Structures are given as structure tokens and as C-alpha cells.
Amino acid sequence: MLRSVCALVLALLLCALGSAPVTGDMSISELRQLYRRRVLVAEKFVRLKEGVPDWMPTVYVNSHSGVRVTLEGTPIKYLIHKGPKNSDSSYKTIITEARHMNSKWQLRDTKYYKGRVTVQDLMNAAGGTYTWWDANCHKAARDMMNL
Where are the domains of the chain? Predict the structure, then answer.
């Protein structure tokens, strides 16, 4: 019984851990251009959440998912994922340059969109504000890969 309670508490704590923030805002004009870009390839990645020891297996409650995209017309790759907690205590879907990803991210799936979808389509598929039971990073990544 105590072991089950401890496992539940650990799972809830791990769900509450966010990812480290990345600085470097884009202008509104740059964001509009980025959102219109066509997606050539989408790759689903998973990593352990910040603070989780490397020896732990990567499972739903202690991991974080995101989708790295290769876009038409630019060599820069981007990561779309549920970002760190905002000042209003919500987690929004964000896009950052993929160069901020570290070696702990593990490739899980690849989809070749060949320009059929845009960054905006993926952002819409990822959904809005985070909830740990439904609109979380794993569901967002799955929904982006299922367009």
C-alpha cells in the first residue's frame, strides 16, 4: 500500500516538472512568416523531464514529448512542444529552434509531410493550454504526428 502511494506521489511530482525555458523571442512578423512555412518532415522526440535521473526508464509520467520539424526554405529546424510554466501558471504550446535540444532527446517516430501542412497546422493540432490528463505534451506530439 505504501509503495503504491509513493509511486502515485512520484508520478504526480514528475508530471508537475516543466522543461527549462529558452530565451530569444521573435517579432510578430517573423512568427507570422514561420507559421506560414510548409513542413517537410516531422520527428517525434521524447526525453526524461528535467530533474529525473538518467537511470530511470522513459515512461509517460516522467517524460516530455515534442516534435522537431524540418521546414521548406530554411536549414533551421524547430521544436514544437508544451513549454515551461508561464506567469499565469499555464503551459502553452511553443516553438523554439531545435538547436536548444540536448542529447537526451530520443527519436521515436518520423512523418514525411512533404509540404502538405504548415507550422500553423501543427500548432493548432497541438492544442492550447496544458492539462496533465488530456492536453499534455504527449497528446500534443501524437496529434501533430497524426495530421
Answer: 2-16+37-145
